[in-house]
Design goal:
By secondary structure, this protein is an alpha+beta fold. It has a single domain, classed as SWIB/MDM2 domain (MDM2, Orthogonal Bundle), CATH 1.10.245. It is built from 4 helices and 4 strands. InterPro entries: SWIB_domain, SWIB_MDM2_dom_sf, SWIB_MDM2_domain.
Length: 90
């Protein structure tokens, strides 16, 4: 049972507050946020600005604020998005 107590003490990667880059802060704000909240706020932004592809909702169409986060790509899938977000969190 000692192993489960050790696991409980490890910080959860989704709950550890991280600082967003300048580009990401333009969408989620400059305050430290847990990774889960960052992803949630980015999704809120995507939905509010209707940035999902009409035919395939898994595809995100980058606007001026998302393009620098997505390494200049015009479109990324929702599965790729977390890889790009990770580069903008410290």
């Amino acid at each position: 049972m000692a192993d489960s107590k050790t696991a409980e003490k490890k910080p959860n990667a989704l709950q550890t507050p991280l600082t967003p880059s300048k580009d990401l802060a333009a969408i989620v704000g400059a305050d430290k946020l847990p990774r889960g909240q960052v992803v949630s706020k980015v999704w809120d932004y995507i939905k509010a600005h209707k940035l999902q592809d009409d035919k395939d909702k898994r595809v995100i169409v980058a606007d001026g604020k998302l393009k620098p986060i997505f390494d200049g790509k015009d479109k990324v899938t929702m599965f790729e998005m977390n890889k790009y977000l990770a580069k903008h969190l410290k």
